[in-house]
Amino acid sequence: MTPAISCEQVQVGYGDLQVLRGVSFDIPVGQGVVLLGANGCGKSTLLRSLNGLEKLQSGRIRIHGDSLHDASRRDLRRIRCSMGYVFQQFNLVPQLSAFQNVLLGAMGRQRFGLLSCLGLTASAEERERAMDCLDRVGMADRALHRPSALSGGQQQRVAIARMLMQAPRVVIADEPVASLDPKAEREVLDLLWRIVREEGLSMLCTLHQLDLARDYADRIIGMKAGRIEIDAPVAEADRDRLDALYIGMARVDAQHDGEAA
Amino acid sequence: MTDRPDLPPRFRAPSALTWVLVVGFAAFFIQGLIVSEVALDRLVRGAGNLVRFIGQAVPPDFSGSLNIADAMLETLNIAVVGVTFGCLLSVPLALLAASNTAPNAVVRTIARFVISVGRTIPDLIWALIFVVTVGLGPLAGILAIVMDTIGFAARFYSERFEEVPKGPSEALTSTGAGRLSVIFGAILPESFASMTATSLFSVEKAIRSAVTLGLVGAGGIGVELSTAMRLFRYDQAAAIILVILVVVVLFEQISSSIRKRII
What is the DSSP letter of A122? Predict the structure, then answer.
């Protein structure tokens, strides 16, 4: 079966700085993977590359078998449409209601883009769908609130509803709970993973907390300085090796003379 | 006495460039004073004339108030119609000129050039140009206001578009949405409050310029004012100036109270 995400020797750099130094892994359909690594180790660049936001220097990324590398603009939009993205900063449009924000998630699916997704012009089915998505994240009673009137955890729920509205097959979550308090953190992760499991989606999620990673993941990938150090089922990923990801030369821009230390 | 050698000096000599600029400016200033013959006795005589003007202007003559009201209405028409078209045209121009929404660098440069032409040519000169091209009357005034508004509003709109946080538009891009959908779904809503404020500023500005456009024959109350001045009917002129003052202040009050409410 074609893997949901497949990376082969991916290299990405900015100027002199080599960020991803040959990253390879496959994520089979339906697997939930947590990506761990220190700040600056290249996690975000990897996730952005998966969405076609970064240009690869070499290597290949395939999403459900479609190569991002030689995709036309139209193909890229189709691939992006099949990939839900959950951001650390939620990235809701602040001036629009939660309901409208969720409706915007359907933009990639619709032939007429925005025109089919405005509260005013969207079809009855899409409007109902958006309400169902809000229902599933428990935010239906806040449909008309603006993001600024919601707590961080609630905003992330709305963002998850937007992702659900998109009807993706694979989900990328970039530190989805990094700006939330511990209680909201658990609630949002419970919700996100429940939805991923219920819909049978594949997921790649970056986290900073080792405990959370072990609680939710099927498999853990650990990155250090632009390379994959650990790639193991969650049961085999032992604590010492995970801790080592954060020690020493973890960043891609670390100085090489420090390596001896 | 201090014994610290690393103490910063009290005074650092200005650079050569600063000297050149300061001396150049001073020279230009003095030359200007000499050429325009600024002299105390002329100022004193001017003050005497001002008193005479005020003496003839008081009491203001409101006998032509029907005419004045008519001309004022025309001025407001020029301002409102001009500013509406100006703001509407500014939105696409600003989208083409902002670095995050422009399709490519060539289009962006052209759009920026158009906007800066609108801004650098003063409204009175636009009015002169349009009086020549479309003839005397309010149409010339409207076109002048349109150009003036584009120069102002399109620039501020496009700066606002560039300041918009990237997150929401990235989120919409990641759903596979097209560029236009992202612009209208995220960037425009995010800029809306600031655009409204800019548009209200444009309205204030347009009313102020519409008042003066009549001086070059582009319609509105300025025509009445320049006629009254040329016929030495200072009392009528005073009435017109008072009406202008009241209307402009009123409009600024209304627009600033709306602006406060939306921001």
Answer: S
